[in-house]
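Slide 14.
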Amino acid sequence: MAGPRGYSTYHGKGPKWKILLAVLLVLVILGAVAVIRLQKYVVYDDSDRPRLDLPQFSKDQPDGSGSTSADEPGDASFTIEEPEQKSIQAAALPVGPLTDWKAAWAAVSPGGAYNAAVYTVKDADGLVYIDSQAAPPSAVKTVEGSAAALGDMLKDEGVYAVAKIACFRDSVASSADLAGRALKNTGGYVFYDGNNERWLDPSKEGARQYLVDLATACAAAGFDEILLTDVSYPTAGKLNKIDYGPAAAGRPDSLRQGINAFLTQLKSALAEYDVKLSIMLPPEAADPTSMLAEVSGQSLEDIAPLMDRVYVSGDGSALDSLRTRLAAVSKDTELVPVLAQPGTTKDGESYLLAP
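Slide 15: predicted structure.
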């Protein structure tokens, strides 16, 4: 007897082993294809052990570690901006040994009115107010505690420290070494200028090296800037009695060359330090008709390109004239007015308040 129409006997699902067999067969085929494709990337090390050297990893890193080497430049580009030169509002500390930094600074900068301190390392008499092996023993004038006070100043991160060095006007070192350092007169003795002061001779290596050693010691100690004064030959007195030595034949150009040679030597010696080099010039430097260079050896056109800053006393039109001249010979050199009293400069401009 036939079963009901429209229906047939249910035989259930197919055997599971057939499905597993089909999956396994597919995996075997894929594995075989992969082995064949990867065979060319199999390399052997020194111990004959095989390893894969896939191209995408080799491209990213030669050593195969899978990360980009730190020594390789990245794809990102960076723009490095030079920091702007910070202006200084400077006050000069009293000339003499420093014994109490905080008290001395509070006296000249009440309420933190200034951000830079000018400390006289060597004055125009030739006296030196730091421990220095280069200076004659009779020139060094330090007292107990002055080294510690100087260290306190140089560690004060809120104050820009300027070392002021009077260069060739020097009555002590010139007398201590007449042959090797002193400027002599035509009679062979030390020269006295119109103010009865003695000078070092810019043409003598001993004189130049003494000043270079003093300046580099200041830079090594941590001063932020070296400010030079009296970088010249004498300009007062019986100048016709000066024995200029080899420089006499080519005056005035030879005097300029001697000053420039000293500044170039000093700048080279300071190159390894993070320190600015500056100079203080007389007000006559603002006058293009001045005969200053013929007597002193100072020429703004020669000196300015070697300096980071030029300090000069004056105001108004004289400073405007000097600023114009300075920009014409060195666009990177900053003019710093030396003022008798604050408040005569624009906001943000550098200046030094004279002592």
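Speaker note: The chain has a mean pLDDT of 83.
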